[in-house]
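Marked as duplicate of an earlier ticket. Keeping the data here for the record.
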Amino acid sequence: MNLRNYILVTGAYWGFTLTDGALRMLVLLHFFNLGYSPVTLAFLFLLYEFFGIVTNLLGGWIASRLGLKVTLVAGLALQVAALGLLALLNPAWSELTSVAWVMASQALSGIAKDLTKMSSKSAIKVMVPADAKGTLFKWVAVLTGSKNALKGVGFFIGSFLLGTAGFAGALWIMAGLLAVVWLGSWWSLPPGMGKAKNKVGFRDLFSKSREINVLCVARFFLFGARDIWFVVGVPVFLRGVLGWSFEQVGAFMAFWVIGYGMVQGAAPAILRGRAPAGGTAVGIAFALAAVAAAIPLGLAAGLPAGVVIVGGLSLFGAVFALNSAVHSYLILDYTDGDKVALNVGFYYMANAGGRLVGCLLSGVLYQVAGLAGCLWGAFGFAVAAALAALKLPREALHAEKLASARVGADSGD
């Protein structure tokens, strides 16, 4: 394990993640306060998610040819540009012009987010020895869990800066700090990290194993299940129906993501150090569907809305975090080290596709059927994620390859 490079990559990812979480809260709360409808709010994030799909598909191919350092520092630079562009938004513009400007800025941020995420997670596969399955699960969980905890901190920072520095001021502060991270990463990381030994053709983008394809379907529905309520439904309900302040909404979303990140980081301990297989993903996804159904049923039964939402979504977050951690391990387990950037990019393309559909449905379902409609949508997507995971291998996929590695053969993992 190259600890120095792991620390550098993780630090860069942390810096980006703080701005990503803060930007989400800034945009959502600022434009909700201006009176934008739930559907319009959802549209502000659509290009962010759409370009995440494109970026993950092409980003892995680019990283395989040029190296992960190139895609990582490019992601950081694009986020600095997106923050600066959004800060130039003119309050005197019409709603149509403002929406178009924000969507363009969010498109840049979506490209930046998925370049940075794909590069950071792919780098771990490169750094960890091929037969160290437990170590791989541990370091993936640490990176993913810490990232999500810091994204939650970013939610709080975004809502705090909105109230203290204003919309444009908050964006300029974040752009300046992230620029320092970008320059440090460019200076410190080694060139060629994650670059494929053999030339990667464009057709390799779609040449995946059955296991990877099935996992990507499960990932699509898993993240759709989260974003159906997460993007618009719950923040707008807390602010518009329950009357929470900006800081209260930001704090709840922050603590939800921090707790989610802590559970992800603790996933190896919760699963008792065992490297998970497909059966683990199935059981957790069905548990997630049960939690998603329990929340609207509790609301329909007349239980206190604040208690049901806070308690139910906290449990949802814990189960979702375990499911996500298992997926994040499985994609690395199912791929060979030389193709890690390609396969992780393809996997996160499915991830972004689920977020895109979930984002749109969050605004539409909330406007049509309220928060309960969003939560029943989450239930349907969680069931679909579980059914897809039934097609995954029940046991460790590379058991034979690892046995070969122990007697001197090249496992290729």
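See parent ticket for discussion. The radius of gyration is 20 Å.
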